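User: Predict the complex.
Assistant: Input components as received:
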Amino acid sequence: MHDIPSFSFSRPARLEQPQAVRIEQIVDEAKNIKSFYFSLDADCKAGQFLMVWLPGVGMKPMAVSSQSGKLASITTAAVGSFSKRLFELKVGDRMGVQGPYGKPFDLDAGKSFVLVGGGYGTATMVFLADQLLAKNKKVTMICGARSKEYLLYTDRFKAMKMETLYCTDDGSFGRKGFVTQALKEALKEKPDCICTCGPEPMMKAVLGMAQEAKIRCQLSIERYMKCGIGICGSCCIDPTGERICTEGTVFDAKRAAALTEFGRYHRDGSATRHDF
Amino acid sequence: MHDIPSFSFSRPARLEQPQAVRIEQIVDEAKNIKSFYFSLDADCKAGQFLMVWLPGVGMKPMAVSSQSGKLASITTAAVGSFSKRLFELKVGDRMGVQGPYGKPFDLDAGKSFVLVGGGYGTATMVFLADQLLAKNKKVTMICGARSKEYLLYTDRFKAMKMETLYCTDDGSFGRKGFVTQALKEALKEKPDCICTCGPEPMMKAVLGMAQEAKIRCQLSIERYMKCGIGICGSCCIDPTGERICTEGTVFDAKRAAALTEFGRYHRDGSATRHDF
Amino acid sequence: MADIRIELLGMKLRNPTILASGIVGSTKASVAFAAANGAGAVTIKSVTRDRRDGFANPTIITFEAGMLNAVGYSNPGAKQAAMEFADLSDIPVPVIGSLTGTKTEDFVYVMQQLKGCPFAAIEMPLSCPHTPGFGTMAGQHSPEATKEITKAVVKETKLPVIVKLSPVIQEIADVAKAAEKAGAAAINMGNTAGPGMIINTGLKKPVLSGTAGGISGPALRPLAVRCVYDIYKAVKIPIIGTGGVMTGNDAIEMLMAGAQAVGIGTAIHYRGIDVFNKVSKEIAQFMDQEGYRSIKEMVGAAHA
Amino acid sequence: MADIRIELLGMKLRNPTILASGIVGSTKASVAFAAANGAGAVTIKSVTRDRRDGFANPTIITFEAGMLNAVGYSNPGAKQAAMEFADLSDIPVPVIGSLTGTKTEDFVYVMQQLKGCPFAAIEMPLSCPHTPGFGTMAGQHSPEATKEITKAVVKETKLPVIVKLSPVIQEIADVAKAAEKAGAAAINMGNTAGPGMIINTGLKKPVLSGTAGGISGPALRPLAVRCVYDIYKAVKIPIIGTGGVMTGNDAIEMLMAGAQAVGIGTAIHYRGIDVFNKVSKEIAQFMDQEGYRSIKEMVGAAHA
Ligand SMILES: Cc1cc2nc3c(=O)[nH]c(=O)nc-3n(C[C@H](O)[C@H](O)[C@H](O)COP(=O)(O)OP(=O)(O)OC[C@H]3O[C@@H](n4cnc5c(N)ncnc54)[C@H](O)[C@@H]3O)c2cc1C
Ligand SMILES: Cc1cc2nc3c(=O)[nH]c(=O)nc-3n(C[C@H](O)[C@H](O)[C@H](O)COP(=O)(O)OP(=O)(O)OC[C@H]3O[C@@H](n4cnc5c(N)ncnc54)[C@H](O)[C@@H]3O)c2cc1C
Ligand SMILES: Cc1cc2nc3c(=O)[nH]c(=O)nc-3n(C[C@H](O)[C@H](O)[C@H](O)COP(=O)(O)O)c2cc1C
Ligand SMILES: Cc1cc2nc3c(=O)[nH]c(=O)nc-3n(C[C@H](O)[C@H](O)[C@H](O)COP(=O)(O)O)c2cc1C
Ligand code: FES
Ligand code: FES
């Protein structure tokens, strides 16, 4: 009945609010690293994150580290006030979870993938491996950590149909040295795509190697996040102003290489700059 | 992702606001009665009404008197300030239209129908005849008016595949006398259903005859209406409090007979009672 | 099933949903219709000293986030209303009378006229945002005016008096305290917000004939919840939380903010006249799932 | 196609959509991103004297009728902001600086710090509803405070100063007049409403860490339109209409109420960062269909 154009648009069906979930299981993954399992009524993809809310404490972005049916998990490193309070939770306790958010990895970027994870970035890589293997892709996983006790998911990896290469700075498990060493070797097999998530200097090195070898590369980038939904701007990156929560978290090599800020500095919650 | 029931409900998709429409055609139907045609992007059913808005003047309920494709019409009697201003509009002018609202007639209440219309209530009856004939029902139309010059749709009726009986108080056209006379005869053919819309004393008489003859009967009832959407309560009828705009306009004989107010009194915009 | 009955101002309610004033409610039959569809209690449309036609139509429209109304207190006046509501014996739930006016004397006059009606409580809006001479347009929502009008009406009746506040004042707790001090038995928090305006771009005119109207429905809820939350900290008298309650979860938000019952109006448009039954069922479902045994356990829970 | 360019305070805008303050905007890159997606002009996030972390997260959530935020003016402080926005030569549209403070001296101080930045205009919110010490929580939205702060900042700069008002005051025209008298070059009408609160019923807590937050998006639009309509009758300086503009039709409602341009924030969530392009296209489409040749023809049309 409109003579006048009504310009209707489809409203987001989901309310962007935390929902109360119950913790079903807690797994000690490594020194100061735990996974928290809870039921989640949403489909997550590798590279996406959830906003996790502890009332009175805060709300932080956390990568999805697994999802099987309705059971999903995050994997958290105890580093500061939020993560330490999260560690005090027990099975049966509740927390708020919102999301998932962010653009995920492209699972169809080839047939063979090399995944490079460092620190809790491995959370994203193990979930990506799950999803790639489900699509019958060939996967090589490279994990780095300071030492054996910081290595994540060693049991989960063992049960997965892929090659896993461990690197520790002190040689306490797998090879001694950086993941870049292992990656160099893995590149000899000419994989179709490299995916990486971890400390930014590590990702920057991986990106350089991929570009040199002319192999496709996808990176999951982190920035300070408040809203997760593209409004607050705290995750905007120089010089394009793209929002990591919305245009990211996953960038391909070309888009990542254009980010002058990448590997050099980042901003905190007040938008104050800090060098890496 | 809800642990907590979210109790979602489907929100009405349509905004209940008048939309600006352009008057495409104006037809002089009878003395002080005109039809206004305009394009309407909604499906109307007989028994439903539109809210017609003239900015600075008012907004009034008007029965749908036809719809063919996107072209719909109302038929208005010039009686007071609103309708007289409506009569000043020309082809190409704009007005606001909102709706349609109300529960329509049940077209599947039988195979043969007798329709009894009086005054501008005939607007509803002619549209109902259109819709019944489109469903291959047998239709007999009975129209009443004071005199020939007040009879509506005589040309439209002629073109329709049904019998039409005219009654005028002064015998200036068709038979002399009330529609009840003609209805009495028509009932001899044992129609499946009587439908009526018009002055309330007329409808009350029709209802009585239908009940006596044990023939199904549907009535389109009017009450003062402000919102048309079931909120203001100005159309609530005694003793059930049903809203004519929402639970009506069409009532079957049983429900109508339970309305102690029907045929006896009605309320104005301040809810002050007036006897018929 | 959880027990969703409550006691409020001596009234026993089968559930905490109350038909808000002015959504139907001008006639006894219309509030009976809401009762027949599950309301725990019903409020009549506000009555003024004299008969009022209110604003010309359009008076009620919706937008994508809620509803706008500028009805303008149309009602048949105190004397006719007193007749309409003289006998409420066939309504199975408590009926709350509502009255308003432009001057304190008018409030008192209407109260006197309605004395013979068997209402369970009396409510007074001091908070309509769009009717000249009334509510916020007349400054009735200030702590001072609230105190004066409340005192005068409380003196006039033995019934508990509910004062209905406007969510437009940021220091809402001050107004609630003024009402409490003046003898109010409860706060209804509250009325519509705004006023707001919708312009039809094709006809280049504000749609409501009153140009601006009170905002109700989903758009209003967070504002109303915040006000209930603020008032709960400030007063001891019970609060009825009104504004945008659509679902059981919305009702529970109100309860957790500090309300003991909820008013429901606009939701009738979104979910039908039986929204009272639906919301009550959803409240019970929530309680069963979360292990609450009584409504009381949830009241004010967000303050812990 | 219709000509949708406008002139506002000496700025030439390719279309009447302006990125509202605080939706992205802390960095040059972030406002450039909005410009790259069609904004006719962009506003930076408000800057305060000192660095502020703002409220803890959650700071931004949505509900079915809009958005709630209590960010709390997080920003790196005036000195760092002055460096961030020192060179704007690569941004293809006018950039509006935004500053705020708790005291008049702070407004002046930030203005002095930002003097070197090539902004096209300066905007000052006196209207944040949820940050202690600022806006309505500090009474900055009264006519008196508006006058004092505006005067002080206007003295400090040659740039046109836009004063951003709060929709919570019913007598909004008085505030706009105070701003005009004090030398404001334009009114931005306006900021978020409320504040409002959302309680998570499972965790029994207000979701925002600031408990209450400003209401934006569709829920706000009728309120903002009404305020623009009221102000248009009271002042001669141009108005930027901000609040719940989602579509071209919404923008035209603002224009017809009396705005010369529209601010857009929350719609980025509903329709993506390119909402500026979308709304501009829809405005042009409407104009073509209805036969308008310039934006000017629509400004204030609802008052005729
Ligand atoms: C997309 C994304 C995915 C993430 N996934 C995980 C994950 O799977 N596991 C995990 O343990 N952590 C993850 N983080 C980091 C996590 O959000 C927190 O930063 C971390 O838990 C530290 O918070 P804290 O309060 O315990 O420590 P703090 O002492 O408050 O912070 C330690 C450091 O964490 C960073 N940080 C703090 N708050 C944020 C924030 N809101 N957004 C981004 N960085 C912040 C800052 O660099 C800070 O210096 C992720 C971050 C992002 C952006
Ligand atoms: C469901 C319904 C369908 C209607 N269909 C038609 C129609 O097809 N053609 C037509 O000409 N009229 C129709 N009407 C009546 C119409 O709404 C107006 O009442 C009529 O146009 C007179 O308005 P006025 O201002 O010109 O005269 P007024 O002098 O204002 O009113 C004359 C009488 O009309 C009645 N009336 C006035 N306003 C309303 C109102 N808002 N709602 C109901 N009754 C009112 C009152 O009994 C009043 O005494 C219908 C009414 C209803 C409720
Ligand atoms: C059409 C309409 C008429 C109203 N009339 C009155 C009234 O007469 N008296 C009153 O106190 N409140 C009146 N109100 C306010 C409602 O009682 C209620 O406080 C408000 O609508 C918010 O609740 P809701 O969102 O559930 O509708 C009216 C509201 C609407 C929508
Ligand atoms: C997350 C967020 C942050 C905001 N921060 C500011 C701010 O720093 N300064 C300001 O003047 N307004 C701020 N506002 C208000 C907006 O500029 C705008 O006035 C308001 O959101 C209404 O417009 P919208 O409905 O288009 O979002 C903020 C709004 C939001 C949603
Ligand atoms: S986290 Fe707010 S815009 Fe990305
Ligand atoms: S016209 Fe308003 S309820 Fe029927």
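The CA atoms of residues 90 and 291 of chain D lie 36 Å apart.
Let me know if you want any component modeled separately.
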